[in-house]
Amino acid sequence: MHRMKVDAGLTNTMAKVAEDARRLEAIGYDGVKVAELNHDPFLPLTLAAEHTSRVDLITSVAVAFARNPMSMAILAHDLNAFSGGRFVLGLGSQVKPHIERRFSMPWHKAAAQMREFIEAMQAIFRCWYDGERLAYNGEYYTHTLMPSTFTPTNISAGKPRIILSATGPLMTRIAAEIADGMMMHPFSSERYIREVTLPAIEQGLATGGRTLDQFELDYAPIIATGANEQEINRAIDAARDRIAFYGSTEAYRPVFDLHGWGDLQTELNALNKREQKADMAALISDEILHTIAIVGEPAEVIDKMKQRLGDIISRTGFTVAGLRDDDHADLLARLRGA
Q1: Which helix (H) or strand (E) holds 172?
Q2: Is the domain covering 5-222+302-336 a CATH 3.20.20.30 domain?
Q3: Using one digit for the tens of pLDDT, what is the confidence trace for 113-161?
Q4: Cβ(215)–Cβ(180) under 8 Å?
Q5: The pTM is what?
């Protein structure tokens, strides 16, 4: 059993970021995460960097293909330098309709494009931090010009870490080959992680000459818990909804297939198209719920998290709505194994 880092979601409401970040650091969290949904994730993390001194600052995740490797490298460098090396760039690909129609950016072959995106960023970082000449020529990205005027000089904090969000085996192998770590999708199970995800990771790590202890594996499972029975029941309902939503998507069918529930994906997909959300949730049996989610009182959930994946997971997430900060601090110590 190794020590897990435990992260919490940070508000993206700019007026509340400073207070929230200070509070989460004081509770004892190891990192704070901001997703790229309806706001930019880098701005709140910049404020959080100013008002904290210890926690990691993590995008969970930033949309890679909405930008280019150079613009992303500049963002990552500036935030990492400002925070004294505490920034972790969590990257994700999003999906084709969003990249093309929401961001008006090109979509190629996602896995190959992501490989080049990260390789290009790493080439840029080698130029800035190690003094190498910038000479990256790929199929999708080309970076060959870096005059000294445009080269950052505040490099004492070191290179930012890059963590890739991955679900399928191809993107998983790419993460293990070239990134510093990987964020696993919450729609998973212990069996799927051990039988499908880990072998793909180990294959990628072997290609790069690394082992699992040199790779940060981040998995924040679907959790249904609460400060009292009423809140736990509410969280269970929310977990069924979330499992049904993810389960309706073709990309996540392999998780169901492994457990012999593949036909459920087809059924959920049809209901989702008709927006029959209640009917979708009703199809998530207790067996499915407890296989994919972790359910129970807070201390019970922590024990289950450690039992299921404590030997392989480097980072996770854990919060309980309505719980006092002191109680949260005690639970974090228990989860870390302290």
Answers
A1: helix 169-178
A2: yes
A3: 999 999 999 999 999 999 999 999 999 999 999 999 999 999 999 999 9
A4: yes
A5: 0.93
